[in-house]
Amino acid sequence: MVVVRIPRDLKEKMREVDINWSEEIRAFIRRRIKEYELRSSLREIRERAKKRRVSVDSARLIREDRDRR
User: What's the structural domain count of the chain?
Assistant: First the structure.
């Protein structure tokens, strides 16, 4: 269970609109967690990709390929 303190004026404004605030907050938290997990996965993929990088002179490879023809 999570408890959030909300200023009185904001709470009054929340009462004026027909929104299920509990569901809104749960949906927001789910989205944020999904974003965090995605960013974390991307960071991990980038780190693994750095280890696999091979430096190749592409101009040299193109010249070699053209010379073979």
Answer: 1
